[in-house]
Amino acid sequence: MSETENLPVRGDEDPWTEEELTTVRAELEGEITRLRGEVTQAETSLAEWLANSVDTAGDDPTDTGAKAHQREQDLALTYNTRELLAQSKRAVERIDAGTYGACESCGKAIGKARLQVFPRATQCVRCKQREERR
Questions:
Q1: H helix runs in 17-124, sequence order
Q2: pLDDT at residue 10 above 50?
Q3: 20 three-state secondary structure
Q4: Which of 24, 68, 78, 126 maximizes the CB count within 10 A of its CB?
Q5: What is the distance between the alpha carbons of residues 21 and 112, in angstroms, rounded to a whole number?
Q6: How many CB atoms lie within 10 A of CB 27?
Q7: Which of 114, 97, 15 is nearest to 124 (CA)?
Q8: Topology of 18-133 in CATH?
Q9: In whole angstroms, what is the distance from residue 50 CA to residue 13 CA?
């Protein structure tokens, strides 16, 4: 039995093919590689900044504020990148477990078309909209 045979799809969609699932998996694995590199680079930059924090001694308040703002932005971007990395890994795990495509809220099919556009999706459109309204 193929791993694609049991993946949920909406009633108006064809079942997943091996090729489609391989394409989605390759996209996710490429994202994982890229995101790991970005996280590593950001962590290296942060470590360098912490090691050289004496360099900012004597800066005027405007420079200090601008640098602090930039650091906060960099940290927020790094957090977002880590979150995308975790979501991508989780999607690959769901493919391996045979649960890819099932909404984590209601258990119904997320929709193959939605997953082909946004392969990290864990909820169907209806559940995601309900969550965003809260």
A1: 18-51, 61-97, 112-117
A2: yes
A3: helix
A4: 24
A5: 10
A6: 15
A7: 114
A8: Four Helix Bundle (Hemerythrin (Met), subunit A) (1.20.120)
A9: 52
Vertex 57 angle, CA 56 and 60, to 5°: 80
Kindly report the pTM of this predicted structure.
0.79
In the chain, the N- to C-terminal Cα span, in Å, equals 41
If you ran DSSP here, which 8-state letter would residue 66 be given?
Answer: H
What is the C-alpha to C-alpha distance for residues 34 and 41, in angstroms, rounded to an integer?
Answer: 11
User: Do residues 70 and 13 lie in contact, with contact meaning Cβ atoms separated by under 8 Å?
Assistant: no
At position 70, the amino acid (one-letter code) is Q
In whole angstroms, what is the distance from residue 16 CA to residue 24 CA?
A: 11
Is the pLDDT reported for residue 2 higher than 60? no
As a whole number of angstroms, the distance between CA 123 and CA 114 comes to 10
| Residue 97 CA neighbour count, 13 Å, CB half | 10
Q: From CA 63, how far away is CA 47, in angstroms rounded?
A: 20
The structure tokens listed for 25 are 């998996």
C-alpha to C-alpha distance for 85 and 92, rounded to whole angstroms: 11
Q: Which amino acid is at 92?
A: V
Question: How high does pLDDT run on average in the chain?
Answer: 87
